[in-house]
Design a protein that fits this description.
The chain has 469 residues and is an alpha/beta fold. Helices cover 35% and strands 15% of the residues.
């Protein structure tokens, strides 16, 4: 290959493909080699779709060489979190041992949309078993073992979309698809030093995706930059008759060339009780943002945000996995705590679930007029950098840590993007998140784009991964 596509943004790779400087077959073989060699080293890959990928690449190559160009993703490989159904006998394991050989006769809508755009599915990526819904509290809760951060193989890639974050950060795929119920896109983006976008609830069809929480689950991209996230969202967003919860609002990614001032809010106490180096990165980011943002500190109304989101998630996941739990299949899961975790969800009372739903509606009504004054509210993506693989962790989902922005954003379906904003002394990445109004993805994407034009954190990659295979 004359030019390596490694760690290049999607616009660059697309132009190389469109101009026939590289071919879809070449680039696909390149990433298949990286997936097969490095994937097991980072526990980030469940299935490499070698044969399917090469068939798709050959089709894309014939089309591009004959002058038929479908758009920016045509001929570009991608990976998908292994809760998205794929046909052709490719397993969809949900990251869990009991489903190791599970297959479906159809593709998830998001897979079909990407393949229709000419993108090439090269891998099904590792994840926390059953998307983390069984109460896991350490990184080993996965079919492939603990998924590792590209920056330190002794640290965790983070969140249930761990394989998607790790694969992008390790250069195994140019972009990946993950899902978030509460933190599962933003957390691996933080730990792996990549950009992750959680779209508005309903923006992307969930047909063919494993359900964890009907009213909280969202599907979105993990990429090398905010601009890449916008490009991918443009292809996967839109209504879907197969998913009644999908929004009928159309989406088009639009890059704002107007160098306007953004209005940005910072939640009061954003750096309270978090890692000192994470706080330092955030404060430095605010200095950068002040060059093109009007920044105000705000307070949200007092609500039990974490408890509301946690109650909804536990009640809905308990119902979704009721048969799984009652059959005793949970005993086959990997993490010890996941073997009994499903049963705790059945103890959530109906009155508590209904109260949480009522409070969520109330929160949404109170938050909307506050959010409408700003392009985004920002805060550190996580209070800590990646944790050690051997460590148990605290978390808002388990009720022993605060995560106001994460709980609020997920419960009322707000879009958010996390982008890298620094490194600790141990060379672990930190992240900053921008949370926007419902359907305001372009506002937070353009804000993140401007931040990435002013910084180079997203352009930094582990030196050992820059070596050619």
């Amino acid at each position: 290959m004359n030019k390596t596509p490694l760690f290049k943004n999607l616009r660059f790779v697309a132009k190389e493909l469109e101009n026939k400087k590289i071919s879809p077959t070449e680039i696909t073989k390149y990433y298949l080699a990286r997936l097969n060699e490095l994937g097991p080293e980072y526990n980030s890959v469940i299935t490499v779709t070698n044969e399917r990928a090469l068939r798709q690449a050959e089709v894309a190559e014939r089309e591009i060489m004959s002058g038929v160009y479908r758009g920016t993703l045509h001929g570009i490989p991608f990976g998908a979190k292994d809760l998205l159904a794929t046909d052709g006998g490719i397993p969809t394991t949900w990251g869990a041992e009991p489903f190791r050989h599970q297959t479906f006769p159809y593709n998830a809508t998001v897979i079909n949309k990407l393949c229709s755009s000419g993108a090439i599915l090269v891998s099904k990526l590792a994840m926390i078993e059953l998307a983390g819904g069984m109460g896991y509290r350490q990184p080993n809760a996965s079919l492939t073992g603990p998924c590792k951060s590209p920056w330190d193989k002794n640290t965790w890639a983070g969140g249930s979309s761990s394989g998607s974050g790790s694969a992008v950060g390790t250069g195994l795929v140019p972009f990946a698809i993950g899902s978030e119920t509460w933190g599962s896109i933003l957390s691996p983006a933080n730990n792996c030093g990549v950009s992750g976008l959680r779209p508005t609830f309903g923006r992307v069809s969930r047909y063919g995706a494993m359900a964890l929480s009907w009213s909280l689950d969202k599907i979105g991209p993990l990429c090398l930059s905010a601009d890449d996230c916008g490009i991918v969202l443009n292809e996967i967003a839109g209504p879907d008759p197969k998913d009644p919860s999908s929004s009928d609002k159309l989406y088009e990614y639009s890059v704002d060339s107007n160098q306007r001032k953004f209005k940005l809010a910072v939640l009061a106490g954003a750096t309270t009780n978090i890692d000192e180096e994470v706080a330092d990165s955030f404060k430095e980011s605010l200095d950068t943002l002040s060059q093109f943002c009007e920044i105000e500190e705000i307070n949200f109304p007092e609500y039990p945000y974490e408890a509301v989101t946690r109650t909804i998630m536990l009640a809905e996941s308990g119902t979704i996995f009721e048969e799984f739990s009652s059959s005793g299949t949970a005993a086959l899961l990997t993490a010890p705590e996941d073997k009994y975790g499903p049963y705790a969800r059945t103890a959530v009372l109906a009155k508590d679930y209904l109260k949480a739903l009522r409070l969520r509606d109330e929160i949404s009504q109170k938050i909307d007029p506050i959010m409408s004054k700003y392009d985004a509210v920002c805060g550190p993506t996580k209070g800590t950098p990646a944790s050690n693989l051997e460590d148990e962790f605290r978390g808002a989902i388990r009720g022993n840590a605060k995560d106001t922005l994460g709980a609020l954003g997920n419960s009322v379906g707000l879009p958010a993007i996390s982008v890298p904003n620094g490194f600790t002394k141990a060379n672990l990445p930190t992240g900053i998140q921008f949370v926007g109004q419902v359907y305001a993805e372009n506002s937070i994407l353009n804000l993140a784009n401007r931040f990435q034009q002013q910084t180079d954190w997203h352009l930094r990659h582990p030196a050992e991964l820059l070596e050619e295979i």
